[in-house]
Amino acid sequence: MHLNCKSGLAKRAEFQARYKISTDMSKLTEEQIARGRGRFLADHPQAVDRVNAITQAVADALGEEVTELRRIETAKAMSEAAAAEGIDGFEYLLRYAIDDDDERNRILQQNREAHERAVGLRW
């Protein structure tokens, strides 16, 4: 468990950069994201152990909410699993969050196109 006492947006931005978490989750609803995280945890008991290691005492010591710290730890575990498979964290989350292959592929294509536009490869 690697937690620190930075605040709010700075902590989230640093976390996203460090663990290569895509900010494209805005394409998903909160319900889909929660479903994806839940399914991931159901398939990865070692990640559940990591998340459960974050107790209320740990959260209190850091001045944070235990649910937020557990959400972050889940995202870190997912990011590490994605990296082990050589894929983007967003694509990995989609595997768990979206059941329909066509919908998942459509979201991935939109994500790729947005990245291409962002770097000037697409207008």
What does this structure look like?
By secondary structure, the protein is an all-alpha fold. It is built from 7 helices and no strands. It is globular, with a radius of gyration of 15 Å.
DSSP helix count? 7
What count of domains describes the coordinates? 1
Q: Structural class of the secondary structure composition?
A: mainly alpha
Shape designation: globular
The topology string of helices and strands comes to: HHHHHHH
- Beta-strand content bin: under 5%
Which descriptors would you attach to this protein?
mainly alpha, DUF6388, DUF6388 family protein, single chain
Give a summary of the structure in a few sentences.
The chain is mostly helical and about 120 residues long. It has one domain (about 30-120). It has seven helices and no strands.
Protein topology:
Elements: H1 8-18, H2 30-43, H3 45-52, H4 56-62, H5 66-85, H6 89-97, H7 101-118
